[in-house]
Fold this sequence. Notes:
With 121 residues, chain A is mainly β. Chain A has no helices and eleven strands.
Amino acid sequence: EVQLLESGGGLVQPGGSLRLSCAASGFTFSIYAMSWVRQAPGKGLEWVSVIGGSSDSTYYADSVKGRFTISRDNSKNTLYLQMNSLRAEDTALYYCTKCEGGSCYSPSDYWGQGTLVTVSS
Amino acid sequence: DIVMAQSPDSLTVSLGERATINCKSSQSVLYSSNNKNYFAWYQQKPGQPPKVLIYWASTRESGVPDRFSGSGSGTDFTLTISSLQAEDVAVYYCQQYYSTPYTFGQGTKLEIK
């Protein structure tokens, strides 16, 4: 059974940093692209970033480019999102997703339960 | 960026009736070299993460009831629920994964009449 367990969310002041983690199990982690998608309270879905299975490709939404970094450790079956220079508008539930294929160009077929990031003073 | 526009924003349908949600992309998401539409539909029930229903525009995810179907190509896509069940109450999102950023539609809230 595929399982994605996010952690690392919390309350942070504007300008601060957080690192989200996503522990994956139930599939061969290294051969699938992985992504982060966020959802602000009461709002729709916003795609954040995607990384290829071998970390060969990474892409970001314009809203986070230069501030967020996606990475993965295939030896630990873990996906990360380093978030720097956080803003109030980054407040959201952050979902880790498994992509359907090894390429970044594929849909998200499994989603975690999410980890909540709140940026506020 | 590709803009995804769903219609309607909300929909109220009687149990057993057909529900139709549309999504229009600002540019084609059909990749000519493999003739695949890089397009998906997701369902999000209250308090739950989204769940993929349809991908490649018309491929139903394993375990998804066959009352859900996806159609369309290029820039215009449709999600059809042939006979609405109570458990289908949710917000439905379309998404393109043709080019980054992989944009979502604004969502369509489906309720029972």
